[in-house]
Write a structure and sequence with these properties.
- This protein has 253 residues and is an alpha/beta fold.
- The chain contains nine helices and nine strands.
- A six-stranded mixed β-sheet has the order 1-2-3-4-6-9, with helices on both faces.
- A hairpin with a 2-residue loop joins β1 and β2.
- α1 runs parallel beside α2 and α4 packs across α5.
- The longest helix has 21 residues.
- The protein starts with a strand and ends in a 6-residue tail after the last helix.
C-alpha cells in the first residue's frame, strides 16, 4: 500500500488526513499527487472555511517514503520530476489555497512533514511532537524550493541546524523558535484544534481569503529551481545513504 490522503468535509470544516499505516504517514509519490488534487479541489470549491491537516495514528508525517527512492532518485531527470512535479505540486497547491489551513501535529514531523506543516497558516502541536529533516544522513539535500519554504517558516537558523546537523527539536523548542503557535499536553490536541477551527469557521470567509492573499503577497514567490539542483542524483553518497537506510545500517560517507 502506497498510502493515501483523505479528505472529509463536514459543513464548513474540512479535514485532510495523511495516512500511510506502518510508516508514520511517510509521503509516497501517490500521496503527493493526491495532496495536490485535494487542495486544488478545496481551492476551487465553495463553502469550506477552514482545513485541518492531520496525520493518522498519532503521527503527523515522518518524511518521504524512502522505500520508493531507488526507483527514481538516481536519475537526474526523474529526481527533478519528483521534486518539481510531485512534491512541489502538492506543496504549491497548499500554499495557493485561500482557505485557512490549521496543522494538527503530534508524533513525528520530519522532512516532508515539516514542509507540509510550513504550508499551514496556524500550527498547533502536542508536547510530544518531534521536528527535523535529517536527510543529511541519507546523502542528499532538501530541494531548493522546499528548503526556502522551511527556512522562511521555521527560520534560517533552525533550517541550517536541521539540514546540516540533522538536528531534531521538540515541540517546546519549535514554539520558542516561532514555528508553532501553540503547544498542548498530549491527549488534548484534537479538542483544542477543533475549537480553533470552529472559531475560524465563524469568521467572514471573504475576509479570510483576502487576508490570505494579502499575506501571501508579502512573502513573495519562492524562486524557481536552477538546472544544477539535481545533478547529485547518481552520486555515490546519494546511493550509499539510501541503501544504508533501507538495509537498516549506518551510512558510510
Amino acid at each position: 500500500m502506497s498510502g493515501q490522503v483523505h479528505l472529509a468535509i463536514e459543513q464548513t470544516l474540512a479535514r485532510v488526513t495523511l495516512s500511510h499505516p506502518g510508516k508514520f504517514n511517510a509521503m509516497s509519490r501517490a500521496m503527493w499527487r493526491e495532496l495536490k488534487a485535494v487542495f486544488l479541489d478545496l481551492q476551487g470549491g465553495a463553502g469550506v472555511r477552514c482545513v485541518i491537516v492531520v496525520g493518522e495514528g498519532g503521527h503527523f508525517c515522518a518524511g518521504g517514503d524512502i522505500a520508493e527512492y531507488p526507483d527514481f532518485r538516481f536519475d537526474e531527470a526523474a529526481l527533478r520530476d519528483f521534486h518539481e512535479g510531485d512534491v512541489w505540486g502538492g506543496l504549491g497547491a497548499m500554499l495557493a489555497c485561500d482557505v485557512p489551513l490549521l496543522a494538527q501535529i503530534e508524533g513525528n514531523c520530519m522532512g516532508a512533514g515539516v514542509e507540509i506543516a510550513s504550508c499551514c497558516d496556524i500550527r498547533v502541536a502536542a508536547s510530544g511532537a518531534r521536528f527535523g529533516a535529517p536527510i543529511a544522513k541519507l546523502g542528499f539535500p532538501m530541494a531548493p524550493r522546499e528548503a526556502a519554504l522551511v527556512a522562511r517558516e521555521a527560520g534560517a537558523a533552525t533550517a541550517r541546524e536541521m539540514l546540516l546537523e540533522a538536528a531534531v527539536f521538540d515541540a517546546a523548542e519549535m514554539k520558542a523558535r516561532g514555528f508553532l503557535n501553540t503547544v498542548l499536553p498530549d491527549g488534548t490536541l484534537t479538542t483544542a484544534v477543533l475549537a480553533r477551527a470552529q472559531r475560524i469557521c465563524a469568521q467572514s470567509p471573504q475576509a479570510a481569503r483576502l487576508n490570505k492573499q494579502a499575506l501571501r503577497a508579502t512573502r513573495g514567490a519562492t524562486t524557481a529551481t536552477d538546472d544544477t539542483a539535481y545533478r547529485y542524483a547518481d552520486s555515490p553518497e546519494h546511493h550509499e545513504g539510501i541503501a544504508a537506510f533501507l538495509a537498516k545500517r549506518p551510512a558510510v560517507f
